[in-house]
């Protein structure tokens, strides 16, 4: 697993455009909303959690299609399937590498973008924590869609249709954590549910992704 993670990170750093594209997309989308709706602080504060979470979700999706595409094209994926190492562990390693390359930069950039919406330090901290719990879940769930659409024409559109409905709970609880704290209701419940989704994804996603990869290779 460690070897796969190191390999994926090394490949990602060589192709810096693929790593920077989701981050730039996140910055552009999140920055357009304050310009479009005006400078009314109360409106921006209400919009901030949802806008930042939707922007992060869409940015994380940009690189999902390439999670297995390169390995599929050069034959490495078939070697992974034939490897004595369980395919589920290799899939988990690739999803973790995707989170490190795509999710972590989004988490680190979110507070900077949150300042545009007038979020205070407490809200920014909760936003970062919710993204830190939610973005690995997005990578794990996205790996299932990436495996199912491997080698399919129009895979990008099909991938979006497959995984967007599965992303909705993560989006609701992630954005809801910041909104609940702002309303004085407490954010612990939302973060607990995000943690539960992450645990479930860690267990079930590698199994489902491994099965999908075997089907795609047949």
UniProtKB/TrEMBL annotation:
Database matches in Pfam families: CcmB (PF03379)
Membrane topology field: Multi-pass membrane protein
GO molecular function annotations of the record: heme transmembrane transporter activity
Gene Ontology CC annotation, any one: plasma membrane
Example GO BP: cytochrome c biosynthetic process
Transmembrane spans: 20-37, 43-64, 85-112, 124-150, 157-178, 190-213
Taxonomic superkingdom: Bacteria
Keywords assigned by UniProt, alphabetized: Cell inner membrane, Cell membrane, Cytochrome c-type biogenesis, Membrane, Transmembrane, Transmembrane helix, Transport
Location (main, coarse): membrane
Annotated compartments: Cell inner membrane
Similarity field: Belongs to the CcmB/CycW/HelB family.
Annotated PANTHER family: CYTOCHROME C BIOGENESIS B-RELATED, HEME EXPORTER PROTEIN B
Free-text function comment from the UniProt entry: Required for the export of heme to the periplasm for the biogenesis of c-type cytochromes.
Name of protein: Heme exporter protein B
